[in-house]
Amino acid sequence: MNLAAALAQDYHVHSTFSDGVSTLAENAQAARRRGLRRLCLTDHVRRDTTWLADYVSAVEAVRDGSGIEIVTGVEAKILNQAGELDLPSDLGGVDLVLIADHQFPGEHGPVLPGEMRALIERGTLSPATVISALIDATVRALARASGRQAVIAHLFSLVPKMGLSESGIADGELDLLAGRARDTGALLEVNEKWSCPSARTVSAFASAGVPIVAGSDSHDCADIGVYTTVRETLDAAAAGSVA
């Protein structure tokens, strides 16, 4: 892993096009001031999103040839066990699709993590079954990025919300997902906001040949490229401290 390169980029920056408080222009200016080399402007989309063309044009308008590479991304949640994504049909001008585990991808649609936690606590579902289903849905989602490069965003952020621990995920399941990410040309994001995934997971993906990128998940331009837990995770993964 090239830690310096990872920390000189931000692959997860929201704007006023979705739930951010900063404009695309403010985000780009902040990234330039921080000396980043690459910025992925990323906003939440759904299947019924109608502003995507305006968003793509607005991102193009903040590219000024100043040395920072600005790419266009969208973030979409995994909807179900089939790995379907909450994406509009036309992704013209979009470079990257961030695949996100905002809710548990159930058989018939997304399930709130609190509901999953209750099912686990009652013994209706086992932790192993839930984790395997989450990984299987993520594997399938990698094939549904509509021809764009996929970024696995804040992988396993859902796990503690369901009362589970990332440390309980079997090595074989990590290897399965990492191998699929490699085979599809996906990237793995280490996310500052949610402090995930763990150094162990990052190490497994890096060992499989998956490029590792950093993301602030910023909603305010003041947070762009500001990394504390990301730096710690990358350092630990590089040093082999992955217990």
General description of the model:
With 243 residues, the chain is α/β, with parallel strands linked by helices. The chain has 9 helices and 9 strands. Strands 1-2-3-4-7-8-9 form a 7-stranded parallel sheet. The chain has a two-stranded antiparallel ribbon with strand order 5-6. It starts with a helix and ends with a helix.
Short characterization:
The protein is of the alpha/beta class. The chain has helices spanning 3-7, 24-34, 52-61, 113-121, 127-141, 158-161, 171-184, 199-207, 229-239; strands at 9-13, 38-44, 69-77, 96-100, 104-105, 110-111, 149-152, 187-191, 212-215. The strands form 2 sheets. The protein has a 7-stranded parallel β-sheet. A two-stranded antiparallel ribbon has the order 5-6.
Question: Keyphrases for this structure?
Answer:
9 helices, two-stranded antiparallel sheet, alpha/beta, globular
| Structural class assignment | alpha/beta
Question: Nearest-angstrom radius of gyration?
Answer: 17 Å
Topology pattern, helix = H, strand = E = HEHEHEEEEHHEHHEHEH
Low-confidence stretches: none
- Give the termini distance in whole angstroms: 18 Å
Arithmetic mean of pLDDT: 95
User: Total helix count?
Assistant: 9
Give the CA-based shape. globular
Quantity of strands, as a count: 9
Main β sheet profile: 7 strands, parallel
Instruction: Tell me the strand percentage band.
Output: 15-25%
User: How much helix is in the residues?
Assistant: 25-40%
Major sheet: order of its strands?
Answer: 1-2-3-4-7-8-9
